[in-house]
């Protein structure tokens, strides 16, 4: 076994007692340059890069192999080929969207507008609201349609109202005008200004991201009559016909933000169709831009890349092609990826890690001094029903319905949207498929799904620096162990804790225990509200927006340390490369979050991302963990010191 951490990336000038993040990553932070085509880069993103290169090799092998027509490998090859066929794409220019633009011109009254919105939704052009099919949060064995707010082209409703985004709004109008001009639209400058005005009205009715996290506020179940009453004048029958959605699908729906839908219906009634035609023209052009000729691609990147995120260069075409294949044929690629990059012993080791994390959670829950016996018993019952999924699904998606042509990029993507829409709608009236995955195996990420009470770890993240078969337990528990603990922790965060072990919204807490829990989470919110990233002077973390992820980080790392002790099973905490096991554990956590971010991207993420900036995912968490202070013998004179009375310990 090895320590699994590159000591050359550390800073000799910083003590872990003053700044664990820079102690571990200081040299790397000083020397690393963010790649020109990225807005953020670090250990996590380097793993993304590796996965992307691995997938590219797989895709290019399928192109060279000449698989039979209609086979999944051939579809992968043909879709990739269609994206790389720049000669055909340049020759077509804006022609692929001509039918959609003609459809927009037919929206001359309210009824026609509803039908056009539906038809464009089916073709992958997002409208004023969005829908998808998912398990009912109060009947988790049944599927139901969910409706949510939409209609915005900027990252968040705050971009339309806050003074610090005024320059971005000006740049947005200029960008819309250029895109409309490329598409041959009339009065592009005037139309662009009116697009901003229309979206500003929609944004004024949007729920902010903190409110939109609330799983109780966003559960509003309505029958069709209730939906019609909520949205007077909105012609649902016409919209459903256009979107290819059967009437029966909307017999009952869950509306996440009901007052937004009321406001959207009012806007559709009150704003003249010609204004909606301008907005829809913009939405068509914007949605298709990455698939059109270079002029559209460049202008799209100029705003959504350079201006919004600070990335100076467009990603290489092969990277964008791989991304398109991932989106349309993700699990077909996943089969090939797993065969090459996820050995069986990796899955076996992960099973052991997960079992130890669950055992550590059980140990901690049993010992909680703030939780009463009734709630504790329910928490243990929920923990006992967690379902881990590791590496890849047991059943793969079927892509036989998707037709792919090597010379029809836009058509390929549009047909993929239709196939996935049909796949989604086919879930209605059937039991919830508990084998389904929401990420592909090659994805470098993990997730917790509260309605299935499952923790999911794709093969893509089960690589160094998160998971290393040749690294020792201390390093693996500090990295992937903490990720496992984080995802389990989402089952017990401020929102996930409102679901029971069967995946239903069900209040299983006593009032006193919920109050004790919220007393602790309020302290965590206050801690994070004070944090100010170096990249965004004057802008601070939103402790309420990031609360769920911060609870996940805090609980995950705390429990992972307990699990590491369980893995030692009484053995001595071995020193490797001059570091004790506990030191390696915390160094692995810090190393996993090594990240550099461009200022524009840092500001964007502060507004929309429920995760705290990487530096704080390291330092702000460990300050609250007693074992960190014991490991590094911190004192009140050290910058990382936090008085024991001020430390937050939840799980």
From TrEMBL:
GO terms for molecular function: metal ion binding; metalloendopeptidase activity. Residues 16-393 form the Peptidase M13 N-terminal domain. Pfam families: Peptidase_M13, Peptidase_M13_N. GO terms for cellular component: plasma membrane. Keywords: Hydrolase, Metal-binding, Metalloprotease, Protease, Zinc. Its cofactor is Zn(2+). Transmembrane segments: none annotated. Coiled coil: none annotated. InterPro entries: MetalloPept_cat_dom_sf, Peptidase_M13, Peptidase_M13_C, Peptidase_M13_dom_2, Peptidase_M13_N. GO terms for biological process: protein processing. The keyword Transferase does not apply. The keyword Metal-binding applies. It comes from the Bacteria. Residues 445-648 form the Peptidase M13 C-terminal domain. Its EC number is 3.4.24.-. Belongs to the peptidase M13 family. This is Putative endopeptidase.
């Amino acid at each position: 076994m090895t320590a699994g951490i590159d000591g050359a990336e550390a800073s000799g000038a910083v003590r872990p007692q003053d700044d664990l993040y820079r102690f571990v990553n200081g040299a790397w932070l000083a020397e690393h340059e963010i790649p020109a085509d990225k807005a953020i880069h670090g250990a996590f993103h380097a793993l993304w890069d590796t996965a992307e290169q691995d997938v590219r090799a797989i895709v290019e092998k399928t192109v060279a192999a000449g698989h039979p027509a209609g086979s999944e490998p051939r579809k992968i090859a043909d879709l990739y080929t269609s994206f790389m066929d720049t000669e055909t794409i340049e020759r077509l220019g804006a022609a692929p969207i001509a039918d959609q633009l003609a459809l927009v011109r037919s929206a001359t009254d309210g009824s026609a507008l509803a039908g056009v919105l539906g038809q464009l939704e089916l073709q992958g052009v997002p409208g004023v609201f969005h829908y998808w099919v998912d398990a009912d949060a109060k009947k988790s064995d049944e599927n139901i349609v969910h409706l949510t707010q939409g209609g915005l082209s900027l990252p968040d409703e705050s971009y339309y109202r806050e003074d610090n985004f005024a320059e971005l709004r000006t740049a947005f109008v200029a960008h819309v005008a250029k895109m409309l001009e490329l598409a041959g639209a009339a009065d592009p400058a005037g139309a662009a200004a009116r697009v901003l005005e229309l979206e500003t009205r929609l944004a004024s009715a949007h729920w902010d991201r903190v409110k939109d996290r609330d799983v109780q506020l966003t559960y509003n179940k309505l029958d069709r009559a209730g939906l019609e009453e909520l949205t007077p004048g909105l012609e649902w029958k016409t919209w459903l016909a256009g979107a290819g959605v059967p009437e029966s699908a909307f017999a009952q729906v869950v509306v996440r933000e009901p007052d937004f839908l009321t406001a959207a219906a009012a806007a559709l009634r009150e704003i003249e169709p010609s204004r909606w035609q301008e907005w829809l023209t913009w939405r068509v052009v914007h949605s298709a831009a990455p698939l059109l000729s270079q002029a559209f691609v460049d202008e799209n990147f100029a705003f959504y890349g350079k201006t919004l995120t600070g990335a100076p260069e467009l990603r290489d075409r092969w990277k964008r092609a791989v991304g398109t294949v991932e989106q349309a044929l993700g699990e077909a690629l996943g089969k090939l990826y797993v065969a090459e990059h996820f050995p069986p012993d990796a899955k076996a080791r992960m099973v052991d890690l997960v079992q130890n994390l669950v055992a550590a959670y059980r140990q901690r829950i049993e010992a909680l001094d703030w939780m009463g016996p009734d709630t504790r018993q329910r928490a243990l019952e929920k923990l006992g029903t967690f379902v881990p999924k590791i590496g890849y699904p047991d059943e793969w998606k079927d892509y036989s319905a998707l037709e792919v042509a090597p010379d029809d990029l836009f058509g390929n993507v549009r047909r993929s949207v239709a196939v996935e829409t049909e796949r989604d709608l086919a879930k209605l009236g059937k039991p919830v498929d508990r084998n389904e995955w929401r990420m592909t195996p090659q994805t470098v990420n993990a997730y917790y799904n509260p309605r299935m009470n499952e923790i999911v770890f794709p093969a893509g993240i089960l690589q160094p620096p998160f998971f290393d078969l040749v690294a020792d337990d201390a390093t693996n528990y500090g990295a992937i162990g903490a990720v496992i603990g984080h995802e389990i922790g989402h089952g017990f965060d401020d929102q996930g804790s409102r679901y029971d072990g069967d995946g239903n919204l069900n209040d299983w807490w006593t009032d006193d225990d919920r109050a004790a829990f919220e007393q602790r989470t309020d302290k965590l919110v206050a801690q994070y509200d004070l944090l100010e990233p170096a990249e965004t002077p004057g802008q601070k973390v939103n402790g309420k927006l990031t609360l769920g992820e911060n609870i996940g980080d805090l609980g995950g790392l705390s429990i992972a340390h307990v699990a590491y002790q369980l893995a030692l099973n009484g053995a001595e905490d071995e020193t490797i490369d001059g570091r004790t096991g506990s030191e390696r554990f915390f160094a692995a956590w810090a190393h996993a979050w090594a990240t550099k971010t461009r200022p524009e991207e840092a500001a964007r993420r502060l507004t929309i991302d429920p995760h705290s900036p990487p530096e704080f995912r390291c330092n702000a968490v460990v300050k609250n963990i007693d074992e960190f202070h014991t490991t590094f013998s911190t004192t009140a004179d050290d910058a990382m010191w936090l008085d024991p009375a001020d430390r937050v310990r939840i799980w």
